[in-house]
From TrEMBL:
Annotated GO CC locations: cytosol
Enzyme's top EC category: ligase
Catalytically driven reaction(s): 5-amino-1-(5-phospho-D-ribosyl)imidazole-4-carboxylate + L-aspartate + ATP = (2S)-2-[5-amino-1-(5-phospho-beta-D-ribosyl)imidazole-4-carboxamido]succinate + ADP + phosphate + 2 H(+)
Enzyme Commission no: 6.3.2.6
InterPro entries named in the record: SAICAR_synt/ADE2_N, SAICAR_synt_PurC, SAICAR_synth, SAICAR_synthetase, SAICAR_synthetase_CS
Alphabetized GO MF terms: ATP binding; phosphoribosylaminoimidazolesuccinocarboxamide synthase activity
SAICAR synthetase/ADE2 N-terminal domain location: 7-232
Protein name according to UniProt: Phosphoribosylaminoimidazole-succinocarboxamide synthase
Family: Belongs to the SAICAR synthetase family.
Keyword annotations from UniProtKB, A to Z: ATP-binding, Ligase, Nucleotide-binding, Purine biosynthesis
Source species of the chain: Alteromonas halophila
Length: 237
């Protein structure tokens, strides 16, 4: 597999074309950003840790029958993935109240949400990723009603698999963000990443924050804690 041109540079990953029209390479960089890119730092080893973490979690999801973009690790910081036509919305599931939900609704952080809450956000940095609903998604043509149902169903399937995975390793999966795309046959496939950059994880006993809130809130030991999460899951880094 040969890496070709830079296709897209996001805040933490760069996407490259390859000599295969149906495959891309995701390069996980050390860049760590928060607050719409207002706070950006380079964190040693984060690209490597997130690349391997993402591969590990996506493999668990594949084992559970959920189609993902990931094919294989190609270097410490790069993965080969299927090319998808990405749907420009973020699917967020919340098992416990935290983050923007707490700010928006004034509820207490840590409140258990039963059933878990599903939210859509539009992927648009300039507009600060506004919250949207199903009607916006269909009216503006970002996805069909059928595709919405599929994204919701898959997002909750991921929740069942990952809640248990993290629970068994002594952590609470508080919330997370997923992005989906369409493959060449029009199937909805899980894309982007699942890493501690895009979810909230708390230690079950102490409620220690083990995700990007450590960076957002200046709590320190960001990558060290991501490595601790990985090791608890049995992933050697
Ligand atoms: O900020 P908020 O509370 O809405 O985030 C919910 C979840 O989605 C968090 O786990 C956060 O890390 C993730 N998220 C993300 N990328 C965004 C927005 C949210 O990974 N652009």
């Amino acid at each position: 597999m040969e890496k070709r041109d830079e296709l897209y540079r996001g805040k933490a990953k760069t996407v490259y074309t390859t000599d295969d029209d149906n495959k891309l390479i995701l390069h996980f960089r050390n860049d760590t950003s928060a607050f719409d890119g207002e706070k950006i730092e380079q964190l040693d080893r984060k690209g490597e840790v997130n690349n391997k973490f993402n591969h590990f979690v996506m493999s668990k999801l594949e084992e559970a029958g959920i189609a993902t973009q990931v094919e294989e690790l190609v270097s410490d910081t790069e993965s080969l993935v299927k090319k998808l036509d990405m749907i420009p919305v973020e699917c967020v599931v919340r098992n416990v109240a935290a983050g923007s939900l707490v700010r928006r609704l004034g509820v207490e952080e840590g409140l258990t949400l039963n059933p878990p809450v599903f939210e859509f956000f539009l992927k648009n940095d300039a507009l600060h990723d506004p919250m949207i609903n199903d009607y916006h998604v269909v009216s503006f043509g970002w996805a069909t009603a059928e595709q919405i149902e599929k994204m919701k169903a898959l997002t909750f399937e991921v929740n069942a698999v990952l809640r248990e995975l993290f629970d068994d390793a002594g952590m609470i999966l508080v919330d997370y963000k997923l992005e989906f795309g369409l493959d060449g046959q029009g199937n909805i496939v899980l894309g982007d990443e699942f890493t501690p950059d895009g979810c909230r994880l708390w230690d079950k006993e102490t409620r220690k924050k083990m995700d990007k809130d450590r960076f957002r809130q200046g709590l320190g030991s960001v990558v060290e804690t991501y490595i601790e999460v990985a090791e608890r899951l049995g992933l050697k880094l």
